[in-house]
Fold each of these.
Amino acid sequence: MIQLSQITKRFPGIIANDAVDLTVRPGEIHALLGENGAGKSTLMQILYGFHAMDSGQILLDGQRVSITSPADAIALGIGMVHQDFMLVPTFTVAENTILGLREGTGAMLNLKRAASRIRELSEQHHLAVDPNAITGTLPVGVQQRVEILKLLYRDARVLILDEPTAVLTAPEKYRLFTVLRGLRAQGRSILIVTHKLHEIMELADRVTVMRDGRNVASVAVEDTSGPELARLMVGRDVNLSVSKLEVPPGPSILSVKRLSVRDHAGQRKLKDISLELHPHEILGIAGVDGNGQSELAQALLGLRTIEGGSILLNGRDITEARVAERRALGLAYVPADRRNVGSVADLSIADNAMLTQPRSNTRHSLFNKTLIRARAQTIITRFGVRGANDETHASKLSGGNLQKVILGREIMSAPKVLVVEQPTRGLDVGAIESIWAELLRERAKGTAILLVSAELEELLNLADRIAVMYEGRIVGVVDPASATAEQLGMMMAGTPLEPTGVSS
Amino acid sequence: MSVFSQAFLVTWLTAGIRLGGPVLLAALGETFAERSGILNLGIEGILLLGALASYLTSIHTGSLWLPLFAAMLTGFAAALFLAWMYVTVRASQVVVGLVFNVLALGIAATVYRRTLAHASPGPIAMFQAVHIPWVSDLPIVGPTLFSQTLPLYLTLVLVVVAHFALFHTRFGLGLRAAGENPRAADAAGISVPRMRYLGTLISGAAAGLAGGYLVLAQIGLFRDSIVAGQGFIALGIVIFGRWSPWKAALAAMVFGTCDALQLSLQLLGTHLPEELLLSIPYVVTILAISGIFGGRDVRPAALAVPYAKEA
């Protein structure tokens, strides 16, 4: 049994953990729930020795232990699967597995013995993996298996998994849950950090909810409900049910014809993509990551060299136009990578807010600071960016707040067509609620929205039509009112369905 | 004498392997630094300091092995300073390395002028070619490979040792992890700073040793222009050799034979200007470093990126 008692950790300006208690029993799957910035990750990093706590103590089976480095944690049987995997891509699975271990005789590596032990473990736990494969070439789901095997190889009794399903497809997710249930049956303690409520209800035995660095509740899952957990996490009632205005679509504003794009390696990423987008419409783009969705968004914005086909915006051919020209014509973009593409980490909110249209913030060719600050202020108040002012650096914002700044900036440019990629990836329900509301408000105003998302729930809730991409092609367009998640899942895996008659 | 005669070939290859020795030794050490994530550009300066230390020790002791040891120790000490800058201070590795080379040149020139410029020390004891019985009588490989000096044999042994250490020991696995994904190494319980200190110290010791090798087995005297960019060539060899000791050995031989070729061509009296010939090895190095022969894909992913643990 592992007990965290009165853990407190301060960072400059904030208390990340404020006297947090947490107990995880053997043979238990314990979920740690909280919004981004609630202090879950900090708490787990303290338990794994990445951060030093300011006060508090950690007890393992009643004994007080000191964990000052990952090596200490590993020695005590505590293992962690980080959200961004801690694997060396150029190493084989076996090399990654024994990295940092002090076992066997002397200084030599015994990769053969490691490989056979990995095979044993992967059979025993149904975690199929080839010990001699180069890790970087494996799909994300398999890399996660390698991370779990690493912990089992060390015979970890406490397994911490940070947002383990964020990168998985639905079938991979169910396989992971099966594995975790098997580990629970062996009496291991599993701590799973997440903000997905339905996963907790499905998998966990108990759940601890954190908000603003504090433990606000530790309850058995059977004694609680999804809405109650959401309320505990956010601190108010959350409403994710979406009501959409029915608006008759007008003539198309964005028209893409037989678009083809290759990547740097010469691989074709888009093959003959044709689509029409209308005002008052959200066109959802579904697909497993890497099937051309990002390339489509980038090609529309002018970030990719176009090999063939054409793009018409409001009747004008913009196939060859530069990014600034496209933006001036009414195109706006919220990229998937909000930290590195959507914003500049070391610039303030004010500077980030004017990045996409610097010209409109000048007077006599010089920047008008008053205007820039006022604009940033508007974004902060109108879109509800919390705990920040116009001088706050983008790097200091949580994912949700940063996304509000980026979406706000794009909406303030009054776009005709808004291209949005993964708008709520990694965000908590509170932030998802407000991003969804903003997108629907834009739709009501008449903006045409292209919504690329890996979250089927998001597409089914927001989109008027959903186009499914597979290997660079649109394999079908469906009506969300009649489509099911299973149907979409089949299409995303490459099984084409008959279009349901709403494609244009 | 024709370019194609066997005598020319043997002379050329022997000289090639001989000239490639010190750069290979320095490149082997640099491979450890770079595999750990440290780009140690300071090896050019360390070669010079090693050469100076070995020359001074040689004059004062007349010994053969003691100067070599002094060169290694000097390189080690210089690398301790560099490692502190690279790893503890987390300064820019490129800037520190380059400025260190200028500093080393200043130190070497000053010490040389203060102590030796007006004295005229006699010839120093040098390593002579050692003919390995039986195999040195073989045609072509005998004279080229088995009639070399002890430092060259030592360097060849170190190629095997370096390969083994990097790819077959726990230390090598940890070192490579620190250079590829330091956060993963950290999470696995490996001390990234320790690995990077060790990598830098190994590169310093090897570069110091290579400086001593240059003086004691090849040149026999000291000038502050003695290194002439061989440290930078070693950096090129590491890239050309894809961060692998075996391939670095091959790359060093290519460099050495280019260098020997320009010497031989000068002796043969071609119509090409001498400066053009002299530049051949350097041009080859620049091409190698530029990555046009490939190699960018196998570069350690965290090379020259300082690593800071979270608070």
Amino acid sequence: MIPRFIRRLAIVLLASTVALATTAAHAARDISIGLQAAITSMDPHYHNLSPNNSMMLHVFEGLIKRDENQKLVPGLATSWKAIDDLTWEFKLRKNVRFHDGSPLTADDVAFTLKRVPNVPNSPSSFATFTKPIVDVKIVDPHTLVFKTATPHVLLPSDLASVMIVSKLHGEKATTEDYNAGKACIGTGPYKYVEFIPNQRVVLKANYGYWGGEEPWDKLTFKILTNAAARVAALLSGDVQMIENVPTSDIAKMEKDKNLSVVSKVSNRVIYVHLNQSTEKSPPFVFDKSGKPMDKNPFRDVRVRKALSMAVNRDAIVDRVMEKKAVPAAQLLPDIFYGTSKKLKPTRFDPEGARKLLAEAGYPNGFSMTLHGPAGRYINDDKVIQALAQFYSRIGIDTKVETFPASVYFNRATNLEFGYMLLGWGTESGEQASAMRSLLATRDPAKGMGVNNRGRYTNPAFDKLLEQALVTMDDKKREGLIQQAAEMVMGEVGLIPLHYEVSTWAAAKGFKYTARTDQYTVATSLKPSK
Amino acid sequence: MTEYIIRRLLQSSLVLVAMSVLVFAGVYAIGNPIELLVNPMADDAERARVIANLGLDKPLWEQYLTFFKGALTGDLGKSFVFNVPAVGLILQKLPATIELALCAMVIAILFGIPLGLWAGLKPDSIAGKTIMAGSILGFSLPTFWVGLLLIMLFSVQLGWLPSNGRGDTVNVLGFEVSFLTADGLSHLFMPALNLALFKLSLIIRLTRAGTREALLQDYVKFARAKGLRASRVVGVHVLKNIMIPIVTVIGLEFGSVIAFAIVTESIFAWPGTGKLLIDSITSLDRPVIVAYLMIIVTLFIVINLVVDILYSVLDPRVRLGQGAGQGAH
């Protein structure tokens, strides 16, 4: 909404200000944080949405937690192991108490698993994570045994997304009771104080927290959707940290001695799906004269390769993303589980791309419209314009069309486009689940290829992936996932472009440990001295 | 007059129905909220469950009928996103918006009319010219830009005022208001000023034009010739006669200030309905969009009715009820 030059002007003026208001009177241990997106509920099982999940980590905890690199670490469970392919044993941490003082026992965990699929009117349920568990056995107050119907290696990762609630307070509680705070009682480091939708969430410290005391007494999360307002709030000292700093402001803010800017590559890859669902031309793909073609060019691996080689990823990262992105070779940066170090971003080679197109029978190229969302991913509209220019260089006539997210994703799911710019954040932090959703042959009943909007299909790849998903041994499984990734990326099942880098900015005296899951959590914010 | 008011209310309910049909169909045409609501990791069964749960699997006319039946009993549906009644969600935010809009209008009127009068009475003085030049600025500077400048000046440079949010509130007659606390006022000042600037300029220009015209009228000349004090000439003969267009505009603009405080609300993170509407549109939360527009249309209808009644008070020549709404607009 606000033109960039205005924001730039604002930043220039703001940065030149000597008297920064960071000294504004606020008790040192009460802090405010500016968030970009609204929290829709304080019920941890109501809406599976990143801003909610991030907020819930303050009040509730899962059996397993994810650290800032999304590695699984013990949470309310001290240990877990697979007894056989279908049986898992979880040991609970002792001496954990809920905010009301009642102790955490296996009953609470069993109750949580029962509640998750049964939250009325949930717009996006967490049942996906609990569905594989067909039976829960309480061995003793601190030991549980879960049974799955089929081998389910992702169980620990799935359970890291399920927040444990108190049976005592949750049994009769509705989502409204959680929103009002009555039932919003967890084991986490902060307690509920106030939740006003679209405005703010206030939490206070849980001094008896088992994991040790947090440095803050009171947290106020303010919803500041507008990027300029967020930056202004930080500069004026109304908040001590903000998330999602607009890329155009980052360079200036990094030079400001009164601010600390941290960034980290995220689990979100920006990629392109090429619609391979049709025999003939997919929607919006034509020959040079604007007529549909008899063959779908995207079904030819040479065309897909050419479309990947034509893209100068470094230029996109340098110019469009102002260096706040990393060129991508697969679906996750190679610090994550199941990624292959052998895969490197496709080299920019317009001449090679032209040759491949000619080999595939398109010596003069073809014409297509590039479709993408506007405002869903960082600089998405600019990225897609850059892409169009790269393709013009190899002889493809391009048009660009973007839509608001509310329109775009429905149409993309209905396969109304040919060339689709999309993004995917892998919350589980391992590559198998991303490939399963985006690249496996679509089979909704099995949960395969649910978001495979390109309808890429490769039986050999499917077999490898399915094998990986039932291999319990971590090392062996990782090998299989890497092998599958190398196979599918070699065939350009989709075109990976870049990984987004998420950025936080904090006032002087605060230090944020950046996270790959793009979450903003106060437990990662510490005083810098 | 009673008959007139009843007729107006009947017409208004037709407007409301027509509007709800349009909005319903419009939001339906934009797309389906499912893609935005459901986590992309969810499988097709989960998607189907949510679609059925929200009633989106039914044909549009059936969805509308369900809505209409509910609306007759005052239930405009539950928000898709928040799962709470849409009306409740809006009414929770409405006091903040109305407070902001009222303060903006008070600023606009308190400063606009005297300044406009001054500029009209002394058009060639330096003060008069300065006022007019200022009003051009108020007209032409974009709201968000002025808002940012205000934040830079008062929050960042001087550190006097908070840059965002609403301050402490106190409960008056069941409404949370913030203008009675010092903290509340400090939060209120910038957004209210920001929102007022455009209306202020509008009122200045209207008042000035009206004053200039009125000064040439015979009754003003006579009043002067009669030797009346200047203050009486201005206060009674001029001001009262130029009030009709000004009241019309203030009435209409008040509605639009409430409905379109969106930009100001998002820059200052003011927790009002404008921000709620924008968020609801981006997430296609249809019940909230429909309920919001119904409430705003109702507001417009009421304001216009009040303006019409005010006319008859201000100008004895206007009589309500002769002919359908004659002289109403």
Amino acid sequence: MLENKTYIETFCTIQNNEITLNGETIFKSDSDLFADFSKKAYQNFDINYPKFFKMDNLSKLAFLAAELLLKNEIDESKENDIALVFANKSSSLDTDVKYQNSISDKENYFPSPAVFVYTLPNICIGEISIKHQLKSENSFFIFDAFNSEFMTNYAEVLLHTKKAEKVLCGWVEYYNEEYKAFLYLVANEGKTEHNKQIIENLYNK
Amino acid sequence: MVKEVFITETNCITPIGFDVATNIQNIESGISGIQLHQNAMLNKPFYASTINNEELNLAFAKISPSENFTRLEKMMILALQPIVENSKLDLNNKVGFLLSTTKGNITALANPSEESFQSAHLHQLAKNIANFFEFKTEPIVVSNACVSGILAVSVAKRLIQSEMFDSIFVVAGDEVSEFVLSGFNSFQAMSDLPCKPYSKNRTGVSLGEATAAVLVSSSKENAKIKIIGDGAINDANHISGPSRTGEGLFRSIESALAEAKINANQIDYISAHGTATPFNDEMEAIAFNRLELENVPVNSLKGYYGHTLGASGLLETVIGIQSVLESKLFVSLGFDEIGVSQPINIIKENQDKNSNYFLKTASGFGGCNTAVLFEKVK
């Protein structure tokens, strides 16, 4: 069934205070902390979406990368059938640890629903779905390291079985200031072939 | 030609039984695992469905002398062990391993050591289980809030269709923990009585813990049921509440129906999510009505097990498959008077009924939904 080729339309990487789009640097900052870097990036790209500041770091990271790939892709006048398939290593542990700290000390016990909701890795998918009104296939996976074989197979089967017209997929990892986002848009047409080796190369760039 | 995909083995470890037959016996007798607890996990008494530690350790000691596994790992290994054994599969590179959980070993975070922190990683949990069974392929973890367990069935089917694997062992599990109890309590989402899905006086969830396991295979031999369609579509509406119109669930079921090439009116039985929160149950009733499914017999199994998070979708699939195999429908425990604005056909007494098409659904935080359609094997 997998005879039809698929293609990578665009890709975006965010790491070390730098954002690259299709291999070219589009934003850099000398910020010390992700909170500061992500705010500067938000301002630089004129993203007008105040909910951004309520998100946890994993959601901010995924949201920024998705924003840069989808802002010219989404046609607001119609339904956009773009699946979201993300993976990482640390799940939502960055927020899990913060939430755990709010319940560990019984003298200082203040569990908050606004923090608890982000103790699920797929919340970042929800945030992107809401922003771009993507009523589409979505799922979040956890691996020890970026698994190009799985990602390629899963994106392809979604396209081949017509569960989605395009798939936005990739890696969104955040734990305690260590982060990396590598997202790419897979479609039935394009120039760059979508396969395991090319994905691997782009991830490692 | 897209491959046909089947479920050939099932098992579950729950507070009301350590195998499928015992679970079914207890469900038929109306026995629930939900009890009142008062302990250090929450600053007030709470209802939850939990597994007895002594029984768990006793059962685990029969299959392994190792002391190196957490509670959740023991529950997962116990769920998988008879399936792996019965399958007699050569565990080669065409045999996948998929683990579904929302919080895994989250209790490890209460211990500040670095070693304990590492064990809170979900891929570490999956690796510990994979090593026990000596699976050869890289474990895949699906962690997509409360749809994880049923989404795992959908993912397994798709990976077999992609020809990455011929068969996949799927295990799903979550524990009742201080972390999750305090979080649901902070949302004021906990019921002050054992949960009452779809009832007028429902006030929220009772949490539960369990593991379930299945073998998903392209081979029809020993097939218990066929997976004929699926969908997992986001509401794109709110991160901590369902869409008022049930949009994502509606579309997930539509997607599953389209793939299966059957009509909604052919569905014989729905095992729904039914967490007993006011918003969830109402949303499901609306989505089912939009698809004209209001007369199809429906139950929520949360009255027996509580909400077992990442385990629930797979556990409820395992019980649903048994309903189809035994031509029975089980009471939606905890239901009294209809408490949703649209009519739905809640199962009020155990009954004999032949079902050809069975639908399993779930919805969760992040706006996620999943629907999987199954067909009785002839």
Amino acid sequence: MRKSFELEDSKTERLVKNLLWLAFSLFGLAGMLLGLLGISNLYAYFQRAQTVDTAINVVSPRKSETGRLIWLEDKPTPRVLEPFMRDQITNDYRRAYEELTYSFLTGDQSGLKTYFSDAALTDVLLASSSLERQKFIDWDHQLSVDFYSPDGSVLAFRDSYQYAQTSLDRSQGDLRIARRTQDVVLKQDEGLWKISQWRVHSDYAISQPEMLFPGLAETVRQMRGINYIARSSPFNELWPKLSLVEINADFATLSRLGFTSVRLFIPYPSPEGLEQFADVLDIAQIYDLQVIPTLLDTYTCYCVEDLPNIVAQFSQLYDLLEHPSVVLIDLKNEADRDFENAGIQQVRGFLSYLISVLQRETGKPVTVGLIEPDPVLSKRLDVISLHHYLSPEALKERLESASTYNKPVLLEEFGFHSWELKLPDPHTEREQALYYQEVLELARQAKAGWLAWTLYDLAEGDMPGGRRVERHLGLLKSDGQSKEVIRVLQGEQVNAPGLKDKLWKFRYFAAAALAVLLSLLLFIWIFKPLKKLKNLLSRKTGKETEH
Amino acid sequence: MRFTGISAFVKKRKRLFLIVLGLELLLLSSVFILKPFKPTEQLLTAAALPLVKPELTISITDDGVVFSLTPLRGQFDPQEEAKLTLSTVAGPYTTWHKLEPQGSSFLVPYVRAGKTPYSLSLGTHSFSGTLERLPGEAVTPLEPLLTARSARVTKEDMPAVIVQPLDQNGNVSTSSVRLRVINPDKQVAQTELSVTSLYSWAYLPRSRLAGKQYIIAETDTATGERAELDLLPGEVARSDFQAPVAEAPASGRDTWSLRLNLPRDLLVNRITDGTNVLFYGEGEGLDFFVTRPLNQGESNLVLPTYPQAEVFSLRAQSGNYISDTVTLVASALTQDIPYSWLSTQPLTLELGPVIDSYGAIPDTGSEVKIDILDDNNELISQLINPLSGGKALIVFPPLPAEASQLVFRMAGELIHLDLPEMQVNVLETVP
């Protein structure tokens, strides 16, 4: 009887135990699910916050964009548009597009009703309901009033503007930059001018102007130039610390050495001191130097929201780019380095548009500095520009490849350092001269012009990426003394370095290795008697313990 | 003990420990060794597809745009989606569509008229172009928008009517709009408006007659509600301004009566009731203005007479219109003022009984003002005595030496008495 009770007890205990386990398991499972739900909600919240943050970052700077909307001459209307009303309309119309941009980025449609009504509201609600978040950026609105009602409540105008649209996912490669012309009807409602009706008359991707540059091939072929880096203010410090005295001296040196061209870098956004660009061009003209300004230096984003400001920067430079010294405009330095991060289609579309803008507005030939000629961009360029720092043998192939586009070819950058302490590849001045001799001969054979990197060794300032080798790429030493390469530029032949020369350039490393070896030997020589002393001491200590 | 145990464990399983450590090192080093061998990213290249470029057919319907994709050879991969982007007037509109192996059609509900670039990509195939939807026929109701609810018939500029004939999708139709305008005199004016820049508009025709103007807009396929414009008469240009009671005794109790009647605008339309008329007078004692509304085509004003015999000029004004002058007369009240000196110490005068112009005696309490003046007609003091039963007994206080004359004023009458000679002269009586 007792046993059966014990059995029953143990059964009950097991049951209770199992139930407890089940309850714990269910509780744990529920906890896990809730936790997952919470984490996913938190993630969604942060994602949303990030999207809104991105949208605000895109929309906010656009409020201060210059030249985003201009009014052309009004057509005769029943009532003259009052200046204060024009300002209000400008404000409301711009805000409508800002709201649209925000809505495309975030999917938030709540603000659209403030600026759109009737058919236009239907359209913006549909378009912003796309599942794919997009960037839609507009600029260069040119408005021409068609009708302003006698009671001042209805305004009809024609608007011609440019826009860029692209998916947030750059890998989609669906960038479109176009000019759209549309009729718009605004109606005043609750103190605001709302877009009520609109209709597109034309919408075309910005096309390349048909331009011919007779003599360009010959001009490029005869280019003997330098990528200019100032000794006292190299790279990014050029414009903020620009010294016209130094520029004058350097350009005089270039002229004396027989150079015909100089390449300058203009960063985006415009740096402090860029207003002296005009003076630099005048100095170049004095020394009969052709100037190749390279725009968008240091810019790598290729973000469509930057386009309005980039075009605005260009428009401030148009007068200068039309200076007679400027023979070629380089839109971007080594754009193909940005293909991976910015997306190849994005870079191509972005630059193709800007090439057209520059060609149209300046009437000057345009190039883009590339390491490898890009088949899409090359079709739009007037000059194929190559950058090469590899062996002369590799250059030969690349020049041949570039020549297939049937456009003038410019070896826009090449160079060779003469730093004898560079490990594991030290160079002598003789090797630098020989490299130039071979490269210039290849350029001559390919009928390509060239621009060397650079005039001086750089003793001061920060180097890009902290690369010390950049300090030793000059044709002249930092104190202005000539290197051997100058002889090559003056038409002399340089012989290939012999075995003695090749070994001699390792003299510093040989000396260093010898010093290390001697140090090691010295260490061993000192360490051996010490070891003996230690052994002696340990033996002595052992004997004392035994005793 | 514990550490000893662990070291013993390690010692015992030295080989196992070494193997694990070795594997771990191998794994770690493989990360660094294999990384350089990671294949560089290749640009996407077109894979060999089982089908040649499919056929794309686009048709524009009332509900949107239908894109139909048909494989010319092979079948669509059901896993693959077509991506369509319309560059609409409101920005990019992107959609994805799964395709049936044998081909599919999908409707995009975009109905706005005008040009719309599109791009469609499917695998390595892509299509692009520009659609153009023309607006449809206008649908009922048309909604003519008047730029004002009312207008004066005499004004040069009439309000405008704006018509945007919309099709069923809210696009502004290009259908021309016929406009019928019915004036208050039932004359009908017709005009045809063409739609340009998304609107059509016209000034409304003028009418000589005030009243309602009806505006009816219609196209071949649609008609609209009747819009109404109130045509108001212009400002007063002429009127009949008169004083039915232009003369009254200067009692302060009697009244004049003024009336502005039959006001008309330039086009002889009756002026709307409620229009304000300003009556104003000029001259000493009557420098005033009063505003009265027109009621039933006239405006009346009744005002008490000035308590002194006087002649006044009054005008009426409404807007820029100013009437002719009306003359109001406050006539002398009394016909006869008998008097007699009763004594000289104190100086006592008895007036009356006074008879007014109606042949009655003035009310008891009517005041008689006596000004005591010097030789230079400067006022020395003033006495006021009431009449009682048409009479007054006036006892003068001792008068200063320079007092030389007395002036009695009563109901517009002035009586001048010289004190030394005790002669009485009526100085002036204003009719």
